[in-house]
Amino acid sequence: MIGQFVDTAGEDMNYAGGQEFDLPASWVSFAADHLLQDPSHAQLIVCLTGLRRTSTKAIGTCEYDLAAADVYPARLTYEVFEAKTGRRLARTTMPSGEADIDVSCPESVVSTAGATAPVAQAPKGATFRSWLRPLILGPAR
């Protein structure tokens, strides 16, 4: 079971944070709204550890009540760690550009001094799930 998505990428971009992957309920140990977390069942932690914009051309816009944020293609790096030991089990870098713009828009965005940070387009959920599947369903490593 995945315990949490953690964003440690460090680039000044907004990101939807895993909500776009539509993971099977049996793979996660928390409710979608994060209010019913039960970390005692987590075996894996998935971290977004790298996020880099790959183009200067916006491919869409996320609209909010007080702001709008441009969406850009990006390259995202994910790492999976064993929750109990912290041992890294896997790492991958995947391009965005396959997901719908609506799926890439986070619920809120960071905005400072009137400027809204751009949004990284999400990778395709099927691509992410196919990478994660053997870690969830395969034999222990």
Structure notes:
The protein is mostly beta strands and 141 residues long. The protein has one domain (2-137). Helices cover 12% and strands 34% of the residues. The chain has helices at 101-104, 125-137, and strands spanning 2-7, 44-53, 60-63, 68-72, 74-82, 88-95, 111-112, 115-116, 119-120. The strands form three sheets. Strands 1-2-5-6 form a four-stranded mixed beta sheet, with helices on one face. The chain starts with a strand and ends with a helix.
Keywords:
single chain, 141 residues, four-stranded mixed beta sheet, three-stranded mixed beta sheet, 12% helix, 34% strand
Task: Give a summary of the structure in a few sentences.
The chain is mainly beta. It has 2 helices and 9 strands, in the order E-E-E-E-E-E-H-E-E-E-H. Residues 1-6 have low confidence and may be disordered.
